[in-house]
Amino acid sequence: MDQNQNCHKNNEFLFKVLIIGDVAVGKSSIMKRFAENVFDRKYGSTIGVDFKTKKLKLGGKAVKLQIWDTAGHERFRSITSAFYRGAHGIVLVYDVTRMETFTNIPKWLQELDLQDYNCTVKILFGNKSDLSSERDVPRETAFKYADSNNMFLFETSAKTGNSVNEAFEHLVSRMLVAFHEAESTATKPILSGDLSTCILSEQEKIIAGSGCSC
Amino acid sequence: MPKAEYDKFWLNVQCTVDKDVVRTDRSHPYFAGNDNPNVEIMRQILLNYAYYQPEMGYSQGMSDLLASILSTVQDEVDAFWCFVGLMERSLFVTSPKDDSMDCQLLYLKELLRMMAAKFYAHLLLEDEGMDLLFCHRWLLLGFKREFHDLHVLRMWEACWSHYQTEFFHIFISVAIVLEYGDLVWQKSMRVDEMLNYFNNLALEMDGDRVLKQARSLLYQFRRLAGIPCTLRGLLSGPGAWDSATLPEIECTCHETSTCKYSNPPRQGKRFSQESTGVSEKQDSDERVLVNTNGHGTDNKPSSDGIDSNELNFKEHQENGSSNLKDEIPNEEQKLDSSDSKEEHENGVESNEFDCEEHQENGTTSLQDETSKEKQKVDSSELNGQNCDDLSPEMNENTNLKDENEHEEQTIDTSEQKNDGLSPRKQQNLNESADLKVEIQTEEPKVDNCDLTEYNQAVDLSPEEQQANDKMCSSVDTISEQVDNRVGTTDT
């Protein structure tokens, strides 16, 4: 697969990850917390796209992540649709203090289905978990939903940094699995976009398991 | 709209506005601090606007545009109507239709093809390079996040004047690419690296330099004898072309069934796909000669400019803003004054004064500024003297203030020529005024040579083309000599 050839060069994996979700759920903050370990509540709204890279080592493998931060407002969705192409991982973000951002997750999933992508690994972030007094999305509801949609869920806080790294590491481990899966099935004519073809191996589950709550 | 849908629309607008106002320009003194009442004013204006224009509603980015207006006007009612006007009149603001964005990107691509050939060639090599991701924000926010406030307002004013084109922002975009984009093709950046590179340039770029370059590009474009059909739309609008000769429209899209400019094919087509290899050196030389050529055409009646400014003022009064008619006589003087150094200095002072007034009073209407900006552009165009003459930095860099008029112009020409050089060389040149004198002894030859090439460019027979090629190679040789000399002096 081209996608796999592109993402493995010089013994370094290069993965493209998109962060999507409703307005002001903290997409840019998550990206900046993970890539630069900073937080500033004065980030302006994202217009068009932004982009950061982060290198990390996981299970002895060097991985370079390209993190694309997209605009949450629907006005820019036609522009952002171009960015779905070639993505290896999708981070869906909602805000635990606003239920509507959680109920919109299926809409974002629907939009993903409209895009042309291959075996993209999806992960769900419930951001702003530090605002426990304002919580609007019950933890159980969210985990149940994630489970039924075959996604992993992490409740994160870009403000405190809680679980952000773990969540991304989990995503990377799943993308590595998906990569190897795709490599081993490269002879097959089509690799389905369905997540079921990217099943975690037992070994990778161990790597991934540390931050997973479901 | 059914009630349920309407409620949902409002909930969506309110939620987005609420989230955006608290994170828009909060480091700006006017919006800084907790519970700042101006943030609430911004919120009210945006909600009112969404109610006033429900088909536009609220789009992310509007708060950015409003913040600049509100912090300048500092009055809720005036700021609201200014904002309404901005949304109505400007093509570069967030548009409800994506096709207008596509249209802008098309113009940008075409202008890049003509004016930044190497950059364009690099874009062609990259997958998805033609999406021009790096400039979406430029266009959507009118460079709001790329430059500091004062420069952004100047650029908006320049755009709002609609002087000769309604798409001046496209020229600004090309100017950014020309000023800062060389590294992109030199380092063969991929699309994502390109995006990163330009994003990191935000608030680091010199707005004055870019604006000067953009004016120069517009002037250059306007003087072309022929333009490709794909850029026909750049001629639209009330301010387009004035009484200038209309250029020939040449079909380059090759859509013979739909393009009305598809026949007959002209000889020596300047902007056909094959001729995009025009080197940047030539481009920059053309820029020099265009300005040189323009010099001396200042007998064009300057009253044109004044009339249109008066119209602007009338329109302005109708909008309920302050009257600046009193300033017209002063501005008129500025228009009439052209070549003497003293007048240049006036221009500089006035320029600085504008900034101070802007900052201290904060009440100067944006549209008033537009008129002034327009006059400045008019002035530079009418005089054929580069707009650069108004630049404070330029005067600082030039140690020849006491020299006569002729020498000053020549130096300006060499200064303009430097635009095509690498930043290092440009710096070298700026550092040594003496060197400029040396260079200018050779410059006129370059100009004259290229002028001939330029004037004949559109209708060239093969023999003429050959002769021109020779000329251009001699131009290159001379330019190299100049470059070498610069290098020698540097070491």
Automatic annotation (TrEMBL), chain A:
Keyword annotations: GTP-binding, Membrane, Nucleotide-binding
Molecular function terms, GO-annotated: GTP binding; GTPase activity
UniProt keyword Transmembrane, yes or no: no
Main subcellular location of this protein, as a coarse class: membrane
GO cellular component, one term: endomembrane system
Cell compartment(s), UniProt: Endomembrane system
Signal peptide span: none
Ranges annotated as spanning the membrane: none
Highest taxon of the lineage: Eukaryota
Tagged with keyword Transcription: no
PANTHER family xrefs: RAS-RELATED PROTEIN RAB
The protein's name in its UniProt record: Ras-related Rab-1A
Organism: Paramuricea clavata
Lineage of source species: Eukaryota, Metazoa, Cnidaria, Anthozoa, Octocorallia
Automatic annotation (TrEMBL), chain B:
Classification of source organism: Eukaryota, Metazoa, Cnidaria, Anthozoa, Octocorallia
Protein name: TBC1 domain family member 16-like
InterPro entries the record matches: Rab-GAP-TBC_dom (IPR000195), Rab-GAP_TBC_sf (IPR035969)
Residue ranges, compositional bias (Polar residues): 290-311, 380-398, 474-491
GO MF entry, a single one: GTPase activator activity
Gene3D superfamilies in UniProt: putative rabgap domain of human tbc1 domain family member 14 like domains, Ypt/Rab-GAP domain of gyp1p, domain 3
Keywords, comma-separated and alphabetical: GTPase activation
Biased composition (Basic and acidic residues): 312-347, 369-379, 399-418
Keyword Transmembrane helix annotated: no
Single GO cellular component term: early endosome
Region (Disordered): 260-433, 461-491
Natural source organism: Paramuricea clavata (Red gorgonian)
Superkingdom of this protein's organism: Eukaryota
